[in-house]
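Researcher: We plan to redesign the surface later, but first we want a full-length starting point. Tokens attached.
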């Protein structure tokens, strides 16, 4: 029976029925496409699929980001929209506390069991961030740098931290409410600090917190960063770095003295963030939602590249790094600064390369010192590996036990930089 128009009961022309068939086919393909997009969006690891499909094979197993359309990027960001927003605001609030301590002469410094310094700023920032995470994601595990044992044994120190935590509040009441408001009392604060004791690992959702990365820089008046990252099944999915002493302006040149006598006034204070597969962004620390995309600077002339390294010679081998720079033909002196500010600085193209060569063969890098920076650099078009060219492996516990050192550079030149690193290390081991 020929098709008939239900309104007129007249037979339809052949042309019309072919058109309607094509239209139906087109509509059903379109609905399949929409359904596929929605189901991808429902899977938080949509970015994982994208990275799997497009991952670079240029250097060992390291993954680097590829550019995606703005609509795909925003779909991916939506998958972790709440995590990103909470992380940004939690880091912003923690920096209000660290900035207060930064301006104090006495920073309540004590030595930890490994002899590294910790301040009332570290403890206070950790308590505030964990409070925000516990309020929003009570089932998530947390790996954080500090623990409260020393504070339980030192009520005076605990009191100093409590008064900071109690009095630190975001000016925006809605943002403060998002984080669950104030910590109720000193005991609750100590318990929160101790909630960062997860062993980490390859399964589930784990937040990695460094409440003040670069504590030595913080004490010296240099750069420091408040760092927060979400790992899901061992992969960094969200990374946020609050850098109170870096310029807000992404195009500000990286001056050689940026790591010395730093201040958090006059246009300083930047928040870097990234969601895996969604690109990297920067915003003023005072306005996290005013985020702009950032990307690494293409290195067309290696001799003009800027490389960043730690201030502390005990944290990375300055001599080896200088030799690598010489081999690459880099003529500028290194820019030394503390903390993951180095990752943020190269991600926005203020610098180009970050080298962290091991000083002690036995030292294992901590996941909280790298998780957020690693993602931000990769999402800005960089590649981050260890000295063997392996991607940083955040799935094996609280440390990067499978990695040695860090080599971060724009993806296009990472292979060249890695070769120089390996040549220098090989020459050194032959000479030993
Ligand atoms: N021997 C060592 N080698 C490499 N990193 C080390 C180290 N001793 C300490 N660190 C880490 O170096 C971090 C600072 O990095 P940078 O040198 O880039 O500023 C410290 O973080 P904290 O300041 O949070 O303790 C600490 O975890
Ligand atoms: Mg640190």
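Model: Full-length starting sequence:
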């Amino acid at each position: 029976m020929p098709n008939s128009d239900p309104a007129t009961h007249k037979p339809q022309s052949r042309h019309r029925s072919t058109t309607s068939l094509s239209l139906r086919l087109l509509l059903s393909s379109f609905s399949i496409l929409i359904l596929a997009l929605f189901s991808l969006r429902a899977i938080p690891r949509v970015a994982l699929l994208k990275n799997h499909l497009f991952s670079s094979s240029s250097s060992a197993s390291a993954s680097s980001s590829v550019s995606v359309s703005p609509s795909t990027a925003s779909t991916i960001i939506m998958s972790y929209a709440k995590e990103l927003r909470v992380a940004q605001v939690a880091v912003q609030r923690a920096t209000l506390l660290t900035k207060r301590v930064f301006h104090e002469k006495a920073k309540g410094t004590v030595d930890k069991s490994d002899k590294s310094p910790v301040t009332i700023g570290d403890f206070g920032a950790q308590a505030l961030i964990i409070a925000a995470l516990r309020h929003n994601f009570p089932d998530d595990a947390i790996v954080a740098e500090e623990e409260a044992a020393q504070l339980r044994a030192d009520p005076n120190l605990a009191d100093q931290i409590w008064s900071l935590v109690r009095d630190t509040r975001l000016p925006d009441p809605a943002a403060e409410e998002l984080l669950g408001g104030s910590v109720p009392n000193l005991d609750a604060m100590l318990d929160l600090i101790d909630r960062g004791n997860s062993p980490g690992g390859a399964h589930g959702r784990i937040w990695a917190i460094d409440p003040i990365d670069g504590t030595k820089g913080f004490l010296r008046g240099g750069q420091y960063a408040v760092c927060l990252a979400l790992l899901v099944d061992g992969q960094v999915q969200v990374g946020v770095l609050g850098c109170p002493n870096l310029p807000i302006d992404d195009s500000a040149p990286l001056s050689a003295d940026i790591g010395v006598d730093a201040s958090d006034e006059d246009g300083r204070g930047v928040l870097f963030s990234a969601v895996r597969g969604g690109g990297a962004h920067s915003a003023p620390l005072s306005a996290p939602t005013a985020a702009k995309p950032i990307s690494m600077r293409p290195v067309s002339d290696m001799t003009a590249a800027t490389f960043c390294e730690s201030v502390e010679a005990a944290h990375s081998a300055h001599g080896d790094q200088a030799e690598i720079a010489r081999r690459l033909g880099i003529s500028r002196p290194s820019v030394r600064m503390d903390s993951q500010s180095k990752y943020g600085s190269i991600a926005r193209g203020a610098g180009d390369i970050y080298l962290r060569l091991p000083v002690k063969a036995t030292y294992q890098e901590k996941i909280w010192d790298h998780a957020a920076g690693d993602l931000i650099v990769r999402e800005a078009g960089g590649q981050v590996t260890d000295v063997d060219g392996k991607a940083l492996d955040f799935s094996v516990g609280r440390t990067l036990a499978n990695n040695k050192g860090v080599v971060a550079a724009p993806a296009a030149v990472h292979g060249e930089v890695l070769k120089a690193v390996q040549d220098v290390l090989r020459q050194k081991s032959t000479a030993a």
